[in-house]
Design brief:
Blueprint lengths: L3 H8 L3 H8 L3 H9 L6 H11 L3 H4 L25 E11 L12 E6 L8 E7 L13 E6 L8 E6 L2 E10 L2 E5 L8 E4 L4 E10 L3
Parallel strand pairs: 1-3
Antiparallel strand pairs: 1-2, 3-4, 4-9, 5-6, 5-9, 6-7, 7-8
């Protein structure tokens, strides 16, 4: 079950008011909150802005950390603040066909220190629509925790030779399936030895 009703009521927003914000009728909000109708991607992106949380948090995916409340504002916080740390944006990861990711630091994105205290983190920009079903859209950035371990059904940035891509992982005997969440793309089945795990995606966010 998604958290739309929980977020709406916590803010003291009525269904009519939220409908006006999204450009839909009150009846549509009711259907979204009860799960009778899936949240359209356009509404989900707007809800991320309104409630300042990640799309995965809205959808009830507990393994993904909610975004900080300052998400709606373009990130301009000073890295000198003790509760904020600069996390590098290091290039692009393709969510369609594999492509080379040039690992040069393009900029730093300040995030809450509490989100990245337990490891090495970096951002990558998403190109393509292969992970659209997980609400990871082109132009978003993913926060990646650098690690080598592979756990089934989690989303990773993986390297295949000199190419880097974004996929959900599932082991099949001695092979690994790299699974997209867009039916327009087929899974890739590779030997585990051919895949280098760069890191696990812990959050996706839109940039403003």
């Amino acid at each position: 079950m998604n958290r739309l009703k929980e977020l709406r009521t916590a803010r003291g927003i009525t269904q009519d008011e939220l409908g006006a914000m999204l450009g839909v009728q009150k009846a549509a909000i009711c259907k979204y909150e009860t799960g009778r109708v899936a949240l359209p991607n356009s509404c989900l992106v707007r809800l991320v802005e309104i409630f300042s949380v990640s799309a995965d948090y809205i959808l009830g995916r507990d393994d993904v950390t909610p975004l900080p409340k300052r998400m709606r504002e373009k990130i301009t916080a000073s890295p000198k603040e003790t509760n904020v740390v600069p996390v590098p944006l290091v290039g692009m990861v393709h969510a369609g066909e594999p492509m080379l990711a040039e690992e040069c630091i393009q900029e730093y994105i300040p995030v809450s220190a509490g989100e990245v205290y337990d490891g090495d983190y970096f951002f990558m920009e998403v190109v393509g629509d292969c992970m659209l079903g997980d609400h990871i859209v082109e132009g978003a950035v993913v926060l990646v925790k650098r690690e080598n371990e592979m756990i089934d059904n989690r989303i990773y940035v993986v390297r295949i030779g000199d190419e880097v891509l974004l996929r959900r992982i599932k082991r099949i005997k001695r092979s690994v399936a790299l699974i997209p969440s867009n039916n327009a793309y087929d899974p890739m089945i590779l030997s585990e030895g051919d895949i280098h795990v760069v890191g696990r995606v812990v959050e996706a966010r839109m940039r403003f």
